[in-house]
Design a protein that fits this description.
By secondary structure, the protein is an alpha/beta fold. It has two domains: 152 residues, 3-Layer(aba) Sandwich (Rossmann fold); 128 residues, Hypothetical Protein Tm841, Chain: A,domain 3, CATH 3.30.1180. The protein has eleven helices and 13 strands. The protein has a six-stranded mixed sheet with strand order 10-9-8-13-11-12, sandwiched between helices. A four-stranded parallel sheet has the order 2-1-6-7, sandwiched between helices. Strands 4-3-5 form a three-stranded antiparallel sheet. About 4% of the residues have low confidence.
Length: 285
């Protein structure tokens, strides 16, 4: 049996975590010196809105090692023979490299394949979800990893981030871009290319943002010659635009599956209140 492990930069629907027995590793999370790892998103964003500034730290290698060993011992269908450990872009975090170290340390006990998504949040979640479905169906590591690679090659993630200060404080964006966005009263939109944040566009209204996303979906369906979509939508504090976007996409495109989720606290450290996003995976016929 292939077991799926990921870190909590991955945003996945709650039902899927339980159904497919996905193990989520939690990055240490702090407000000042107070550790709040595992805090609920509602509590986290409330404190964020009250002006408290959070920070995260690297996943300790020891936690990864212990998790891999525990998975080996407690596989639910059959004892776990291989783990696919799926992680955030190495250009954004050292977690991927920590996972490689941990995998080497346990190699005589359990085989661990470490997979870098080149993404985070909803994009990482889509790759993890599709890999978990493949593993749950009883496929071997070669097939599960091939599915992860296929999804990574096609999935697109777009984020709208009203307050770029959180990306700046987290070391993901220069101060000049933050000031420019504030002065122009725009909503910056970003995507990811080769594991790094790149601009996707600037809008002033939700309707403009929805139009840009729909245009991009059209391009990708044509590019991959696919007809349907799997969709993950996520928000930090305001669900309304995700509902609007979900309805707009369903009205225009064949959607085989769509979920709206609240982005977790670790993601919120960098996106801040009011952020939202989408990942979509074009699939055939």
């Amino acid at each position: 049996m292939v077991k799926i492990v990921t870190d909590d930069a991955s945003d996945i629907p709650e039902y899927a975590i339980k159904k497919y027995n996905i193990t989520i590793l939690k990055h240490p999370l702090y407000f000042g010196d107070e550790e709040v790892t595992g805090i609920s998103p509602d509590q986290f964003y409330k404190r964020l809105k009250n002006g408290e500034m959070p920070r995260t730290t690297l996943l300790p290698t020891g936690v990864l090692v212990n998790t891999y060993l525990a998975c080996r011992q407690t596989g639910k269908k059959l004892d776990t023979d291989t783990i696919l450990s799926i992680h955030i872009s190495s250009k954004m975090s050292g977690t991927y490299n920590s996972a490689l170290t941990a995998a080497e340390m346990v190699k005589d006990i359990v085989k661990v394949e470490v997979f870098e998504t080149g993404l985070t949040t909803l994009g990482q979640g889509m790759i993890t979800l599709e890999s978990a479905i493949e593993a749950f169906a009883g496929q071997g590591i070669k097939s599960v990893k091939s599915k992860a690679e296929e999804v990574r090659s096609k999935v697109k993630m777009i984020l709208a981030i009203p307050d770029l200060n959180f990306l700046h404080r987290g070391g993901r964006l220069g101060k000049g871009k933050v000031l420019l966005g504030a002065m122009m009263r725009i909503i910056p939109m970003v995507t990811y290319v080769d594991g790094e944040i790149v601009p996707f566009g600037r809008v002033r209204t939700a309707s403009q943002a929805i139009s840009k996303v729909k245009d991009e979906i059209k391009k990708d369906l044509a590019k991959f010659k696919d007809k349907r979509l799997k969709v993950l939508l996520g928000y930090t504090t305001d669900k309304r635009i995700c509902k609007e976007l979900d309805e707009a996409i369903r009205n225009e495109f064949p959607v085989s599956e769509s979920h709206i989720i609240q982005m977790n606290s670790v993601v919120g450290v960098y996106l801040g209140p009011g952020a939202w996003g989408i990942s979509y995976y074009p699939i055939g016929g």
